Structure to design on (594 residues):
């Protein structure tokens, strides 16, 4: 148990009749960036809240930094830093005051606290803004301050719940940079959740794909993409009377695997799409299949999700709605 | 030892800092009692300006009777409404930051209650100063004991406000309950007129109203008239305050996010 920063065994969380997390098990090694990738409502936040001792699991066990999340919640709290999905700063206070109060609550004081506040504010490049009220901060600045604050007491494990939700591309790249530096220089173990493919791909050493409260695949980004094959071809086949089932017809080399998706789409796993496409089209024509569209791409994590669930992560993601929610929150902050 | 007190001290400090930054709260909570004293008090003071009137108010003029009551009202209002900061913390997320900390929850909530109670008493002090400027028969030696009563009252109703806020999810809900309770508690506390002239059913409500005992105790020291023994007032206030503080701590101890 000691070589793992996080161990979860069959974690379940139910809210009344809703099962938010339906039994997840995974292990996070010390020093790695481990990600939960999944669409909105998959149960990512609920999992973080359980690991951070804010919610009691309905069933299952978990240990963070070697401590049981229910029986040793105080020891867990001392070992972790958390950046919540939703804002959690006191916007009526300055950046420095937010840091100072956090340090005091975590039992730090004196020179040690002052030094550490400066160090962390410099790390996220907010030191110049330390005496400004947080309510005048941009979304990106708030996020950076939250990261600095979560690191103030030198946690062993840092939880980041959708660290770049609703931020512009430049700010996101910036925050990714901090996160990588933390792993490389600080040896902090990072558990993050995201519904952004690129974020998972950029940052995570290993990740678990989560959907409807269950982990449906786990591994390094490359391992996961290999599930799909080296290339993936998408065919849209028009329904014609008497035509065979497309996957039955086409499941022979060079196609390694065929998977029906929605609306007549099928995904074909091949090793080299440029050579396979002519062969496949010819075969489809000879079998009486009408191909309406063809496309192919190097697999991304999105293809992995599509392959595993038959849906695109983007279709389900509430990124627009989330973003708006975020904006509205921020505005409300400002008005006060 | 000092470390154990840190969460208490820092939360009290935070409540102070925030209060000073939210000017609107300062203004509204002081303005209301000023309006009562100025318009209600001065108006009735003239109406009650006849020889028999003093008998109604236990032997003092109306302003001397009224001002301790309004001071208690100011402290009560400020502390009860103070619970709204808990709702803000829920809505703006700061509560999560506190709940995930390895600090003593009791220390945190009591620190915050202490901070808000001191703020409420300071507002009461401002009203008291105004009272001395308007009413000329108040006893300056009564200020300190009256402030002590005010502080116990403030601790109690800050705790009550916090308890309510922890139970509530919406700002509107909280404000509705507060304003529903506030007016009756104020009118049935004897702040504006003596309890002994109330109809019997009102008297009974006044007797179970915690604010009554703060008004009565403060009036005893500041004006020299009272309905109960000031020690009775003190005992009742202490019991009620301890109960509300225990309730708030207990609720916060078990608080999770939802
Ligand atoms: N406090 C709650 N009460 C009821 N349902 C909840 C609560 N929190 C989350 N849920 C539900 O649990 C599911 C998972 O939510 P969440 O963990 O927030 O997902 P994610 O973070 O992956 O978007 C969703 O269906 C959500 O509506
Ligand atoms: Mg979430």
């Amino acid at each position: 148990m000691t070589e793992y920063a996080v161990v979860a065994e069959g974690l379940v969380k139910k809210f009344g009749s809703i099962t938010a997390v339906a039994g997840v098990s995974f292990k996070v090694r010390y020093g790695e960036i481990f990600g939960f990738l999944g669409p909105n409502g998959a149960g990512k936040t609920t999992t973080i809240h359980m690991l951070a001792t804010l919610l009691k699991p309905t069933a299952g066990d978990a240990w963070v930094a070697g401590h049981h999340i229910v029986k040793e919640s105080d020891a867990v709290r001392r070992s972790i830093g958390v950046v919540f999905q939703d804002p959690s700063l006191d916007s009526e206070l300055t950046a420095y005051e937010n840091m100072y109060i956090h340090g005091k609550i975590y039992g730090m004081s004196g020179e040690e606290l002052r030094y550490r506040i400066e160090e962390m504010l410099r790390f996220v490049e907010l030191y110049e803004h330390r005496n400004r009220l947080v309510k005048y901060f941009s979304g990106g600045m708030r996020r950076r301050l939250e990261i600095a604050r979560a690191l103030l007491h030198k946690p062993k494990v840092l939880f980041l719940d959708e660290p770049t939700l609703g931020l512009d591309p430049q700010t996101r790249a910036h925050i990714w940079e901090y996160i990588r530096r933390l792993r490389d220089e600080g040896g902090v173990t990072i558990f993050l959740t995201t519904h952004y493919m690129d974020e998972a791909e950029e940052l995570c050493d290993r990740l678990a794909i989560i959907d409807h409260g269950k982990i449906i695949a786990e591994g390094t980004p490359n391992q996961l993409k290999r599930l799909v094959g080296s290339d993936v071809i998408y065919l849209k086949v028009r329904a014609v009377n008497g035509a065979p089932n497309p996957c039955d017809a086409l499941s022979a080399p060079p196609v390694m695997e065929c998977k029906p998706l929605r609306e007549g789409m099928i995904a074909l796993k091949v090793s080299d799409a440029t050579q396979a496409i002519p062969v496949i089209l010819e075969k489809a024509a000879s079998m009486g299949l009408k191909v309406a569209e063809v496309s192919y791409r190097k697999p991304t994590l999105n293809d992995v999700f599509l392959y595993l669930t038959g849906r695109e992560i983007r279709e389900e993601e509430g990124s627009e709605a989330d973003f708006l929610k975020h904006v509205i929150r921020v505005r409300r902050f400002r008005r006060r | 030892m000092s470390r154990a007190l840190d969460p208490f001290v820092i939360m009290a400090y935070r409540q102070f800092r925030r209060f000073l930054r939210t000017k609107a709260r300062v203004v509204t909570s002081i303005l209301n009692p000023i309006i009562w004293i100025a318009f209600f008090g001065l108006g009735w003071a003239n109406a009650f300006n006849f020889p028999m009137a003093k008998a109604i108010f236990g032997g003092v003029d109306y302003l001397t009777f009224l001002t301790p009551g309004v001071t208690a009202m100011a402290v009560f209002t400020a502390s009860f409404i103070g619970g709204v900061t808990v709702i803000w913390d829920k809505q703006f997320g700061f509560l999560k930051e506190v709940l995930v900390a390895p600090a003593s929850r009791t220390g945190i909530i009591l620190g915050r209650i202490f901070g808000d109670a001191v703020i409420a008493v300071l507002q009461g002090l401002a009203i008291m100063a105004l009272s001395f400027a308007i009413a000329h028969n108040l006893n300056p030696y009564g200020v300190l004991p009256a402030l002590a009563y005010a502080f116990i009252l403030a601790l109690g109703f800050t705790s009550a406000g916090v308890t309510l806020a922890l139970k509530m999810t919406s700002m509107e809900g909280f404000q509705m309950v507060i304003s529903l309770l506030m007016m009756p508690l104020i009118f049935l506390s004897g702040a504006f007129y003596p309890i002994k002239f109330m109809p019997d059913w009102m008297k009974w409500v006044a007797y179970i109203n915690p604010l009554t005992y703060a008004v009565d105790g403060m009036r005893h020291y500041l004006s020299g008239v009272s309905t109960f023994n000031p020690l009775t007032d003190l005992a009742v206030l202490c019991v009620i305050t301890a109960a509300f503080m225990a309730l708030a701590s207990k609720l916060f101890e078990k608080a999770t996010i939802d």
